[in-house]
């Protein structure tokens, strides 16, 4: 253990403490008008890891020299933060949301329950499962924007919001395991362990499907009375978006997903997308550039800070028995990010097939416990926090809301 590794672990620990106390700063912002702006900044969960990553780089420059700090920052891979930013903005565009909304409303009309309740169930079950095709960040964005006016709004009991948020985060985390490319923790090991989409569907997919449907159904039943009351409050779009415009937006989204691991291509597509939205501005709502950038900043900070944690994480992962590893993975995911955890697992030589399965199963099952547990979670927080008290999502509330669906997912994966 070197001095920089120790400083990296300490900085990471401070970032975690800051994450869990973010709601406290939002409360201070409402009480202290003079410094409200500063407290609001410190209360932005999406800012936390970027801020502490900056602190780490400054400390590294002072201790090891500026060149070492620059070399370390440039050695990190930032493809995922860039991709999440781009896919959030494209998936949240009005033409995409409208065509998805049309399809789901058409399906809701065929269900035996009121449309408002059916749409909430779709948002908590069907859209997270679509994450296996369009990637988890895109699914999180679509689901969050669909559910925001129906669940995550003023007037809904706070505990119900956290219950729904926990189900959404867990379902997105496990709902991307039907393929080998959509869930970040699966992607980290798929090539190294030769797991293709057929293997994922047969090994993880049916269990994830059962857990997603069960979690969504239970929380929808709990929410049903409040959902009916909120249905009339939905916004109405006066001028519908032409189908061709929505299809072109979907083509942009498909292209971004197709080139998810090639930033030169998906960033180029994104620039074309920006130009297209300007050309047909009357069919657009303001793009969520600020929210997307904040989430990208958060994930980039996690990449910088997480790169210094391998020295203590890898011995834990490699030294545990398979079933102990499963429960350890659920716990460690909450404080490290599940993709980072499975990546470390992929570096361990001689890991048994059972241990590989249980490591990934634990990592995806625990992906809803905290904001940092799964890459799409910060996107959900950025899009939904305004519906919570103090416009902030408390770490403890999220943890408590996610525990029941996490237990369901864990039970299914242990079958």
How is this structure best summarized?
The protein is mainly α. It is 75% helix and 0% strand. It has one domain (3-414).
List keywords for this structure.
415 residues; mainly alpha; 21 helices; 75% helix; 0% strand
Shape: globular
Overall tally of domains: 1
* Residues in β-strands, percent: under 5%
The SS-based structural class is mainly alpha
| Helix percentage | over 70%
- The overall pLDDT, averaged over residues, is 90
Q: What's the helix count? A: 21
- Order of H and E elements: HHHHHHHHHHHHHHHHHHHHH
Can you summarize the main beta sheet?
none
Catalogue the unreliable spans. Answer: 231-237
* Rg, alpha carbons: 21 Å
Write down how many β-strands occur, each being a DSSP E stretch of 2 or more residues.
Answer: 0
Structure, explained:
- The chain is mostly helical.
- It has one domain.
- It is 75% helix and 0% strand.
- It has helices at 3-20, 22-31, 36-43, 45-64, 66-75, 79-91, 94-108, 115-134, 136-147, 158-175, 184-193, 197-230, 243-258, 263-279, 289-306, 310-318, 322-336, 338-346, 353-365, 377-384, 395-414.
- Helix 13 (243-258) packs antiparallel against helix 14.
- The protein is globular and about 60 Å long.
Secondary-structure blueprint:
Blueprint: H1 3-20, H2 22-31, H3 36-43, H4 45-64, H5 66-75, H6 79-91, H7 94-108, H8 115-134, H9 136-147, H10 158-175, H11 184-193, H12 197-230, H13 243-258, H14 263-279, H15 289-306, H16 310-318, H17 322-336, H18 338-346, H19 353-365, H20 377-384, H21 395-414
């Amino acid at each position: 253990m070197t001095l920089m590794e120790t400083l990296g672990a300490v900085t990471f620990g401070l970032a975690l403490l800051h994450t869990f106390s973010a709601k406290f700063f939002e409360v201070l912002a409402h009480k202290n008008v003079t410094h409200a702006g500063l407290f609001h900044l410190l209360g932005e969960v999406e800012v936390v890891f970027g801020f502490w990553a900056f602190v780490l780089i400054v400390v590294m420059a002072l201790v090891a020299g500026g060149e070492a700090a620059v070399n370390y920052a440039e050695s990190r891979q930032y493809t995922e933060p860039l991709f999440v930013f781009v896919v959030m903005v494209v998936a949240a565009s009005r033409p995409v949301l409208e065509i998805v909304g049309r399809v789901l409303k058409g399906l809701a009309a065929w269900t035996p329950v009121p449309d408002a309740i059916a749409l909430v169930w779709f948002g908590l079950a069907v859209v997270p499962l679509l994450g296996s095709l369009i990637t988890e960040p895109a699914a999180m964005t679509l689901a969050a924007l669909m559910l925001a006016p129906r669940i995550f709004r003023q007037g809904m009991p706070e505990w119900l919001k956290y219950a729904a948020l926990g189900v959404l985060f867990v379902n997105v985390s496990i709902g991307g395991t039907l393929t080998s490319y959509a869930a970040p923790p699966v992607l980290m090991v798929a090539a190294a362990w030769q797991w293709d989409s057929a293997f994922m569907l047969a090994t993880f997919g049916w269990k994830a499907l059962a857990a997603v449907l069960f979690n969504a159904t239970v929380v929808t039943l709990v929410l049903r009375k409040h959902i009916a009351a909120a249905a009339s409050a939905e916004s109405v779009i006066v001028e519908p978006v032409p189908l061709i415009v929505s299809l072109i937006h979907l083509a942009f989204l498909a292209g971004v997903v197709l080139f998810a691991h090639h930033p030169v291509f998906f960033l180029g597509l994104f620039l074309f997308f920006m130009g297209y939205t300007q050309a047909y501005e009357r069919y657009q709502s303001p793009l969520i550039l600020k929210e997307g950038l904040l989430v990208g900043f958060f994930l980039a900070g996690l990449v910088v800070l997480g790169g210094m944690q391998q020295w203590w994480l890898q011995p834990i992962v490699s030294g545990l028995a398979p079933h102990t590893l499963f429960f350890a993975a659920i716990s460690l995911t909450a404080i490290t990010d599940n993709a980072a955890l499975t990546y470390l697992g992929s570096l361990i030589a001689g890991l048994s097939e059972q241990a590989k399965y249980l490591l990934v199963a634990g990592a995806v099952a625990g992906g809803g416990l905290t904001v940092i547990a799964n890459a799409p979670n910060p996107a959900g927080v950025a899009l939904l926090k305004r519906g919570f008290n103090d416009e902030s999502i408390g770490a403890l509330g999220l943890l408590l809301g996610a525990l029941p669906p996490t237990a369901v997912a864990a039970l299914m994966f242990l079958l």
